[in-house]
Amino acid sequence: MLKPHEALDRAENLVSQAIKAGADAADAVYVCDASTEVQVRLGALEDVARSEGEEIGLRVFVGQRSATISSSSLNPSILANLVSRAIDMAKEAPEDQYAGLAPQDRLLKGDVPDLDVDDGQDPDPALLRAAALECEDAARAVAGVTNSEGAGASAARSIFALATSHGFAGVKSSTGYGLSASVLAGEGDAKERDYDWRSARYLADLDSAAAIGRRAGERAVKRVNPGSVKSGSMPVVFDPRVGSSLVGHLLGAISGSSIARKTSFLLDANGTALFDSSLSVIDDPLRPRGLSSRGFDGEGLPTARRSIIENGVLTGWLMESASARQLGLQPTGHASRGVSGAPGVSTSNLHLEGGSGSVADLIRDIKYGVYVHELVGQGVNLVTGDYSRGAAGFLIVDGEIAGPVSEFTIAGNLKDMFAAMVAADDLEFIRSSNVPTLRIDGMMIASA
């Protein structure tokens, strides 16, 4: 792989070519990555894969017209043709009064913060194989596990470089490691599957292979012989594995593009209380070793810790420059960017905090409800907030987790769900988006 400064040189050179060829403004994104993945199943090596690639994307502006083009070839003659085609495309594009680079006076000044997201390692495939085998062995050793879909271990390194024609140049190098297992329990047509996985920026920060495998096995066994749940209105408790999706729906509804297009159920919610006053939703892109940490956003703006929900109140929208201009506001440092297309928005190291009391305390007064650990389908309407998804989990009876249940639907409206949300104190920072166990009363349950 290239060194970070070489990656940045490539992005800067492409921007320079675009300006010399007649573009009024331009930015370029260079991405390269290399990864090794090992898969095992039933104690035997199943696959070893190594992938390496690089791509560069160019966005050019001619007046208020723009075009984006990308290439996986870095051949100089191909890049020269890329520049001329991008400019020709931009000249034919419709005018957009909101198009343009980020405000120059808001660009990150000085050095990009070092967030400690690269441990400098490139593990031997033999080490990854040993970890995957240990993980699967631990899962298969759980009494009641009858088959395995396998285990995998991976190691990757990536470089992201961004350069703009109005003064920004930044690069980020990161490593990432993953370990997972998926097994089945039960016999015949009554088999149930479950899994566990962990990922980290540093190899040393990964949870142990044995712990990951054991959790996968125990989860699968607990799901065997599911029953049915009664239909009706009742409390629903969301496992952290699926609870983070609820915060994801919040982010989709407060993106600048959704607000500018008036396609959000939270269109008039800025500055209002959406959650209980004990809860806050925090975006922390500067978290050391965070899974999605970044010192600059996809337009070259600085990132910063921010309370998206502060003591229950929505503090504002997530905006890249185009939607900010449309709304008459300033971009918020949440732009995300690939090598093709215009910037969107994303958060980094998101978490919900403010829960109090254990999970046992959270469910103690539930006479009859469900604990959800799996969600299926995409039944979420961000225009109306209507929510309806298939689910599986466990019954809660008289304050205790009871037997497994499956093939039921949970439904409600996201505004009502946010307002009714209560959180436990079991928040862990193990994903790019983290929530504790969540409880929402009054949801509608329909059994299949």
From TrEMBL:
Residues 33-90 form the Metalloprotease TldD/E N-terminal domain. Pfam families: PmbA_TldD_1st (PF01523), PmbA_TldD_2nd (PF19290), PmbA_TldD_3rd (PF19289). GO terms for cellular component: cytosol. GO terms for biological process: proteolysis. Gene3D superfamilies: PmbA/TldD superfamily. Residues 231-446 form the Metalloprotease TldD/E C-terminal domain. InterPro entries: Metalloprtase-TldD/E_C, Metalloprtase-TldD/E_cen_dom, Metalloprtase-TldD/E_N, PmbA, TldD/PmbA_N, TldD/PmbA_sf. Residues 121-223 form the Metalloprotease TldD/E central domain. One of its GO terms (molecular function) is metallopeptidase activity. PANTHER family: METALLOPROTEASE PMBA. Belongs to the peptidase U62 family. This is TldD/PmbA family protein. It comes from Sphingorhabdus lacus.
